[in-house]
UniProtKB/TrEMBL annotation:
<dbReference type="GO" id="GO:0008289">
    <property type="term" value="F:lipid binding"/>
</dbReference>
<comment type="function">
    <text>Plant non-specific lipid-transfer proteins transfer phospholipids as well as galactolipids across membranes. May play a role in wax or cutin deposition in the cell walls of expanding epidermal cells and certain secretory tissues.</text>
</comment>
<comment type="similarity">
    <text>Belongs to the plant LTP family.</text>
</comment>
<dbReference type="InterPro" id="IPR036312">
    <property type="entry name" value="Bifun_inhib/LTP/seed_sf"/>
</dbReference>
<feature type="domain" description="Bifunctional inhibitor/plant lipid transfer protein/seed storage helical">
    <location>
        <begin position="16"/>
        <end position="101"/>
    </location>
</feature>
<keyword id="KW-1015">Disulfide bond</keyword>
<dbReference type="GO" id="GO:0006869">
    <property type="term" value="P:lipid transport"/>
</dbReference>
<dbReference type="InterPro" id="IPR000528">
    <property type="entry name" value="Plant_nsLTP"/>
</dbReference>
<keyword id="KW-0732">Signal</keyword>
<protein>
    <recommendedName>
        <fullName>Non-specific lipid-transfer protein</fullName>
    </recommendedName>
</protein>
<keyword id="KW-0446">Lipid-binding</keyword>
<dbReference type="InterPro" id="IPR016140">
    <property type="entry name" value="Bifunc_inhib/LTP/seed_store"/>
</dbReference>
<dbReference type="Pfam" id="PF00234">
    <property type="entry name" value="Tryp_alpha_amyl"/>
</dbReference>
<keyword id="KW-0813">Transport</keyword>
Length: 106
């Protein structure tokens, strides 16, 4: 369902609202660690499957994730960095508060 929402944009860029909505099931893992739920991984996959269409979407996703980390306090940066791998994804940049989103390439 979430993937359908991301793809139902008719070519429009991904939004921070969509990124945050899809990352919400991961907040407990991002704050506390432990196991990653299937619901969390489905959201992460939806984000990055939509984001790989264009460099603009990829960078927007990066900026949105950084913004979300500011909104959700106590995010553990190591948990954030490990999340894509735990969901079986290879993301072209490190999920980190220090990542330079403008330098991301495809």
């Amino acid at each position: 369902m979430r993937m359908a929402l991301l793809y139902a944009q008719n070519g429009y860029a991904i939004t921070c609202g969509q990124v945050i909505s899809n990352i919400l099931p991961c907040v407990v893992y991002l704050q506390n660690g432990g196991s990653v739920t299937e619901h969390c991984c489905n959201g992460v996959k939806a984000i990055f499957n939509a984001a790989v269409r264009t460099i603009v979407d990829l960078r927007t996703t990066c900026y949105c994730l950084k913004s979300a980390a500011d909104k959700f306090k106590r995010i553990n940066k190591d948990n954030a960095a490990s999340l894509p791998g735990k969901c079986g994804l290879n993301v072209p940049y490190e999920i980190s508060p220090s990542v330079n989103c403008a330098s991301i390439t495809m």
